[in-house]
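Operator note (shift B, R.M.): manual run for Glycerate kinase requested after the automated queue skipped it. Running by hand, logging everything below so the morning shift can see what happened. Input copied straight from the record, untouched. If output looks odd, do not overwrite the archive copy; leave it for review.
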Amino acid sequence: MIDDRDRLASTPSRDVALACLEAGIDAGHPRRVVRDVVALEGETLHVADDSYDLDAYDEVVVLGGGNAAAHVAAALEALLGDRIDGGVVVTDDPVDTARVRVREGDHPVPSERGVDGTRDLLEAADAADEDTLVLATITGGGSALMPAPAGDISLAALQSTTDALLASGADIHEINAVRKHLSALKGGRLARRAAPATIVSLILSDVVGNDLSVIASGPVAPDASTFDDALAVLKRYEIDPPEVVVDRLERGAAGEVAETPGPDDTAFERVANHVVADGMTVLEAARETAADRGYEPLVLSSRVRGEAREAATTHVAIAEEVRATGTPVEPPAVLLSGGETTVTVRGDGTGGPNQEFATSAALELANGDEIRGEAGITVAAVDTDGIDGATDAAGALVDGTTVEDVDAARNALADNDVYPYLESRGSLVLTGPTGTNLNDLRVVVAERA
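Run finished. Output pasted below as returned.
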């Protein structure tokens, strides 16, 4: 799974950190998740605690999108076989499927091929009727991969607005409040297009707190955000989008454009949403691996958010406390966290939140007199989908030996250009697309002092 793993695993601590990453990513893969939560007994389909008689439907289709959507579709085909009559999913990680069409899009910024694939997806939703069972595959990355510009909004306008939002430091709730109100699919509109079909969604969550309306911008979930909320986000982060974007949001706020469907909308009368995997899925597997290796595991939180470099400082401080006092856990220990940190971009370099987290952590380790030059604390941080920011790296692996030139590391952070710095230090973790997208995974290994 991890490129050049043998070189990266140059110490026992590094090896443990990499093993935890691998276990977490593998645990969240759709082939495992679907097998655990979906079952077929005769013609009865069980999804979590709900059951559906397949004989009651004229057709079963798979619709959706996201980084892991094709893997979910393939897992459903393996289970249901020719009971699936068709469908469309849009992803940037395609796999072979027999009955569901896989269309490719791009992430994190929407593209023309994503628009084309989403058009096919919406046409398939329009064709559904009350005798259709829709298995909706909703995974992280769906907001970018399923662009459906609404009204007069062009793809270029959507791209520039997305770029500005991603660089602003806004959190995913704020970003998606805007994206939902610029889309013909997001914010519950896919459910409205497929109604009155029965919709059973399998959601792999990459959102802190599992807010259904935020995961992939909630295409089959009720939306409580408003056009006013979207305008407030743009104002809060001083984003100046194209005029056509502002015009649509202002017309929506004035009641001239219909709001996204809310909880009382009839579109959701036959919709059942199931979160089948999330950040805790990843953390629990990593925790078991750490324990198997003889380390005391401690999950700090599955909901870490905020600036990546600041979160790194806190994580290192806890690891230092573990080594110094045995609080909150005795070493050797592995501290684990999930969630989604952000980066407020001020430079024009290359990197991602997990790479900035790792670089900031490496600086903290280099500045600690009691551990300078040691590998007593090892830090790994990755995005579980294998794509951190807009780079080909999942994240990075660092310890007290990583930073030799403190000024070079500081300059890389200041310029938001940590990718080349980490590459020069042999610290990047490369996996390629993993098929998993359950947010970030951070592993901090604290050895005995």
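Quick read of the result: The chain has two domains: 5-26+280-446, 29-277. DSSP finds 16 helices and 15 strands in the chain.
Leaving this for review. - R.M.
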